[in-house]
Write a structure and sequence with these properties.
The complex is a heterodimer.
Chain A: H1 2-32, E1 33-37, H2 39-43, E2 53-59, E3 65-66, E4 72-78, E5 83-89, E6 101-108, E7 114-120, H3 130-138
Parallel strand pairs in A: 1-2, 5-7
Antiparallel strand pairs in A: 2-4, 2-6, 3-4, 4-5, 6-7
Chain B: H1 2-30, H2 33-62, H3 69-74, H4 81-86, H5 92-112, H6 119-143, H7 167-196, H8 201-232, H9 243-268, H10 272-294, H11 308-332, H12 347-377, E1 383-385, H13 387-407, H14 418-442, H15 448-475, H16 484-509, E2 511-517, E3 522-525, E4 528-539, E5 543-554, E6 557-562, E7 565-569, E8 575-578, E9 580-583, E10 587-598, E11 601-610, H17 613-630, H18 642-645, H19 647-652
Helix pairs in contact in B: 1-2, 1-6, 2-5, 2-6, 5-6, 5-7, 6-7, 6-11, 7-8, 7-10, 8-9, 8-17, 9-10, 9-12, 10-11, 12-13, 13-15, 14-15, 15-16, 16-17
Classes of the chains: A alpha+beta, B alpha+beta.
C-alpha cells in the first residue's frame, strides 16, 4: 500500500508541476511572441496596432535625421517596394548606417510612425540581418547585399 | 611543410580512433584481453597526434604563414602575437581543431585516471569516445580542414574579427568546449554501462567526477561569455536570452540535473534509467548547441561560415548519436530495475523535484529557442521570442528550485522527518526573511521583487552556513576535515546565492542613461559624477581609436579618468565600441561612447550597475565547488569488491 501511495503522490506531484509549468509557458509564450513584418505588409495594414512587432529592411540612403537633442533619430526603412518611417531615441548600434540592413522592434503609432524601442544591427559588417534580407526578398528585388 | 604535418596527424588520428572504437568495444564484449589493452595506448596516441596538429596550426599563425587559407582569413601581419595565438580558434575550422584537442584530451585523461576501474569498462568508455572522435574528425577533414592551402598565397591576411580581439575570447571558447566535450565522457560512461548491462552505484561513482568536471568548465565558459558580451559588445547587459546563449545554457541545465541525479544513483542506486537518459541528453544537447551555433541557422558572432554542408553534417552526426544511444537505451533500460526505495519525504524525492524543475526549465528554454527556427523552416513566417518570455517562465520556475536548494541537504536519504528538517531550517528561514525585508530599505528602494530575491539568496546562504556549522559541531572536527564532495556541494550552493544577489540587485537598482554630452558636461549615476572632457585620437597596432576622457568623481573628489574607446580596425570598416568600466566589487560605473554629434559633442552611454560582479563571482564559486567535489578521496579509492564492480572482468580473466 505504502509503495502505491508513494507512487501516486509522485505521479500527481509530477503532473501538477508539469501542468503548472505548461500553463505558465504557454501563457508567457503567447503574449511574448514578436512577429516580423516587412514594410510592404505594414503599409498593407497587416501589422497589429498596440502590439510590439519587428520591422526590417534597409535604412534608406539620405533618410537619417537627428533631432536637436542629438539622441532622437528618425530614419526610413525600405524593402525597395514600400517604406516605413521609424523613430528611435538612444544610441544606435555600431553597425547602423544608411544603405545597410536593419531590424527595429517597437510599436506603430496612430500616424503610421514606427516607434522603435530597440534597433538591431549587431554583429559584423558582412552580416545582413536575416529578417531584413527576408524583407528584401519578399519585395522581389533582392539586390546583391553581401559584399 | 608544417601545416601538412598537422593535416597528416589528423588523418592518422582518424584511423587510430576508428581502430580503437572497433577493437575496444568488440574486445570488451568478447573478453579479448589484448584488444581491451589497446584502448589506453590508442587514446594517448590520439591525443599526442592532435597536439601535434594543433601545434602545427599555431605555428602557422605565429609564423604568419598566409598560404594557409584559414590563417589568411583570421590573421594579419599587424595582429599582436597574443591574438595571433588565440586566432587559432577564432574561426570555424580552428575552433573545431580545438574541439578535437579537447575531445582527445578528455579521452587521454580517462586513460590516465582510470586505474581503479576494470579494464573492460575503460575499454568500453574509450571505445565510445573513439567513435565520437571519428565522427568529429570526419567533420573536420571532410568539411572544415584548417590546413587547406591558398595558391597563390596572399601577401597579407584579412585579420581576426575585431570583436574577437580580446582577452575574453582567449579563454571563453576553450572553457565552453571543455564543458561541451567533457559531457561526452559522462555520455560514454552511460553507453558503456548500457553495453555492459551494468548500471549500478559503482558506475555512478565512476562517472560522477567526470560529469562534475565537464559541468564546472561549462559553468565557467558560460560565465566568461556573459562577461565578454557585457563589456566587449558594449551592450551592458549580462544575459540576453539570445539563441546562441541559450544553446550553451540548455546543456548546462540538463548537466546540472545530471550531477544531482548521479548523486542519487551513487548513494541509493535509484534513478538509474533517468540518470542514463540525462547523460545521453546532456551530450546530445551539447551537439545540438554546436549545430545551432556553427551551422549558420542562427546568425551571430559565432556563426563563422554558412556552408550548408557543415550544418547537414553536424545534423547527421547529431542524429546518429541520439538515435543509436536512445535505441540502445530502449533495448537495455527495461532490464535495469528500480533500485532503492524511498519515502515521499526524503532526499531522493527532493532531488527528483530538482530534476523535474530543471527538466521543465530546459523544455521552456528549448521551446523559446527552437520554435522560431521551426516556424521559419516551415515557411510560416518570421517571429522572435524575446527576453520577456524567458523571464516570465524561467524566474517563477527557479523560485521553487532556489527554495529546495536549502531543503535538500538537510533531508535524510530514504526517509526524512519533517520535524527534524524544520529544526535545521528554522534559523535560516528567520535570517532570510529579516535580511530580505530589510536590505531593500537600506539600499534605498523597496520592491517585492528585490525583497524576494534577497530572501531567497539569504535563505540559501544561511542554510549553507548553519549546515556546515552543525556538521562541524556534530563531528567535532574542523571545516577541512569534512568530506570534500560535501563541502563542494555547499560551496556551489553558496555560489547560487551570490549569483542571485547579483542578479537581483543589478536588475533592481541599475540605471542606464544615453545622453548627449558636450566637453565639460556632467552626468550623475548612482551617486557618482561623470564629467566628459572630450575625445582625442589615438593609434593602436592595427586600429585607429577615438578615446574619450571621462572624469569620475564623487562628492567633488576626482577618483579617476575613464577612457572608453571607439575603434576602427584597419581590416574592416566596422567600428568597435570599447567600454570603460570602474569596478570595485560592489558596483560598476560603465561608460561607452556612442557617436559624434558635432561641435565636440558625443552621445555617451552611462550605466551604474550595482553588484553586477556578483553574478560572475557566483559562477566562479559554483565552479570551485565542482572542483572541490571532484577532489574527494572516495573517487580515487581502489575498487574493493571486484565481484560487483566487474562481472565482465571475471569472465575474461
Amino acid at each position: 500500500m505504502k509503495r502505491r501511495h508513494r507512487r501516486i503522490a509522485l505521479i500527481t506531484g509530477g503532473l501538477a508541476a508539469i501542468g503548472i509549468a505548461t500553463a505558465l509557458v504557454l501563457n508567457a509564450f503567447q503574449s511574448n511572441l514578436v512577429f516580423f513584418f516587412t514594410p510592404t505588409q505594414v503599409s498593407a495594414g497587416e501589422a497589429p496596432e498596440a502590439r510590439t512587432f519587428r520591422v526590417g529592411g534597409m535604412v534608406q540612403t539620405g533618410s537619417v535625421q537627428r533631432q536637436s537633442d542629438g539622441l532622437t533619430v528618425q530614419f526610413v526603412v525600405t524593402d525597395t517596394a514600400k517604406t516605413i518611417p521609424v523613430t528611435y531615441s538612444g544610441i544606435l548600434p555600431d553597425l547602423f548606417s544608411e544603405g545597410k540592413g536593419v531590424v527595429a522592434q517597437g510599436k506603430l503609432d496612430k500616424n503610421g510612425l514606427f516607434r522603435a524601442e530597440e534597433v538591431l544591427a549587431k554583429h559584423d559588417e558582412n552580416y545582413m540581418p536575416s529578417e531584413a534580407q527576408h524583407a528584401l526578398d519578399q519585395a522581389g528585388k533582392t539586390m546583391n547585399m553581401r559584399p | 611543410m608544417i601545416p601538412e604535418i598537422g593535416h597528416f596527424s589528423l588523418i592518422a588520428t582518424l584511423f587510430i580512433a576508428l581502430a580503437q572504437g572497433g577493437l575496444a568495444l568488440i574486445g570488451a564484449a568478447q573478453g579479448h584481453a589484448a584488444w581491451i589493452a589497446f584502448a589506453r595506448p590508442a587514446a594517448r596516441a590520439q591525443f599526442l597526434l592532435v597536439v601535434v596538429s594543433f601545434a602545427s596550426l599555431t605555428w602557422a599563425f605565429i609564423a604568419k604563414d598566409f598560404s594557409v587559407a584559414y590563417v589568411a582569413e583570421n590573421s594579419n601581419s599587424r595582429l599582436p602575437l597574443m591574438y595571433r595565438i588565440s586566432a587559432v580558434w577564432g574561426g570555424h575550422e580552428g575552433s573545431l581543431l580545438l574541439w578535437m584537442l579537447m575531445q582527445t584530451g578528455w579521452a587521454y585523461a580517462v586513460s590516465r585516471f582510470s586505474r581503479q576501474l576494470p579494464d573492460a569498462m575503460v575499454a568500453r568508455v574509450l571505445g565510445v569516445l573513439g567513435l565520437v572522435t571519428v565522427g568529429f574528425l570526419l567533420f573536420v577533414l571532410l568539411t572544415s580542414n584548417p590546413f587547406e592551402r591558398l595558391t597563390p598565397a596572399p601577401i597579407d591576411g584579412l585579420d581576426l574579427n575585431p570583436l574577437l580581439q580580446d582577452v575574453g575570447l582567449i579563454f571563453h571558447p576553450p572553457l565552453l568546449y571543455m564543458g561541451y566535450v567533457g559531457f561526452s565522457v559522462a555520455f560514454a560512461f552511460a553507453i558503456a554501462a548500457l553495453l555492459a548491462g551494468q548500471l549500478d552505484s559503482t558506475w555512478a561513482r565512476w562517472s560522477r567526477p567526470w560529469a562534475t568536471a565537464a559541468w564546472l568548465f561549462l559553468t565557467l565558459g558560460i560565465a566568461l561569455g556573459s562577461w565578454w558580451a557585457y563589456y566587449e559588445l558594449g551592450w551592458g547587459g549580462w544575459w540576453f536570452w539570445d539563441p546562441v546563449e541559450n544553446s550553451s545554457f540548455i546543456p548546462w541545465l540538463v548537466g546540472t540535473a545530471l550531477i544531482h541525479s548521479l548523486a542519487v544513483t551513487e548513494k541509493r542506486a535509484s534513478f538509474k534509467n533517468w540518470t542514463v537518459l540525462l547523460a545521453i541528453s546532456t551530450f546530445s544537447f551539447s551537439l545540438l548547441g554546436a549545430f545551432l551555433v556553427r551551422s549558420g541557422v542562427l546568425t551571430s558572432v559565432h556563426a563563422f561560415a554558412t556552408d550548408p554542408r557543415r550544418g547537414v553534417f553536424i545534423l547527421m552526426l547529431f542524429s546518429v548519436v541520439v538515435g543509436s544511444s536512445l535505441f540502445l537505451f530502449a533495448l537495455r533500460a527495461p532490464k535495469v530495475g528500480m533500485g532503492g526505495r524511498f519515502a515521499a519525504i526524503s532526499r531522493e524525492s527532493l532531488l527528483l523535484l530538482n530534476n523535474v524543475v530543471l527538466a521543465v526549465a530546459t523544455g521552456a528554454v528549448l521551446l523559446g529557442t527552437l520554435y522560431p527556427l521551426f516556424i521559419d523552416a516551415l515557411g510560416l513566417g518570421k517571429l522572435s521570442v524575446g527576453p520577456p518570455y524567458f523571464n516570465a517562465v524561467f524566474i517563477p520556475l527557479m523560485i521553487p528550485a532556489l527554495i529546495l536548494i536549502a531543503v535538500g541537504p538537510v533531508a535524510n536519504w530514504k526517509t526524512a522527518k519533517l520535524g527534524a528538517m524544520a529544526k535545521h531550517l528554522r534559523l535560516p528561514a528567520v535570517v532570510a526573511v529579516v535580511v530580505g525585508l530589510v536590505t531593500p530599505f537600506l539600499l534605498g528602494r523597496w520592491s517585492i521583487f528585490i525583497a524576494l530575491g534577497i530572501t531567497l539568496a539569504a535563505w540559501i546562504a544561511a542554510s549553507v552556513l548553519t549546515g556546515i556549522l552543525q556538521r562541524m559541531r556534530a563531528t567535532r572536527s574542523g571545516l577541512l576535515a569534512q568530506p570534500r564532495s560535501w563541502l563542494g556541494m555547499h560551496m556551489a550552493h553558496l555560489g547560487i546565492a551570490v549569483f542571485v544577489v547579483g542578479v537581483t540587485l543589478v536588475t533592481g537598482y541599475e540605471t542606464e542613461q544615453d545622453i548627449r554630452m558636450m566637453p565639460g558636461d556632467s552626468v550623475s549615476a548612482g551617486g557618482y559624477d561623470l564629467t566628459f572632457l572630450g575625445v582625442r585620437n589615438a593609434q593602436g597596432p592595427n586600429y585607429m581609436a577615438e578615446v574619450g576622457d571621462i572624469e569620475l568623481s564623487r562628492n567633488g573628489q576626482v577618483l579617476r579618468t575613464l577612457h572608453p574607446e571607439k575603434r576602427t580596425y584597419t581590416s574592416s570598416p566596422m567600428p568597435m565600441t570599447e567600454a570603460a568600466i570602474d569596478a570595485n566589487g560592489l558596483r560598476h560605473v560603465y561608460a561607452a561612447l556612442g557617436e559624434p554629434l558635432g561641435d565636440g559633442a558625443w552621445s555617451v552611454r552611462v550605466y551604474y550597475k550595482p553588484f553586477v560582479d556578483w553574478i560572475w563571482a557566483g559562477c566562479i564559486l559554483m565552479a570551485l565547488g565542482g572542483l572541490l567535489a571532484i577532489s574527494d578521496r572516495r573517487y580515487r579509492l581502489k575498487r574493493r569488491n571486484r565481484r560487483t564492480a566487474a562481472p565482465s572482468q571475471r569472465t575474461s580473466s
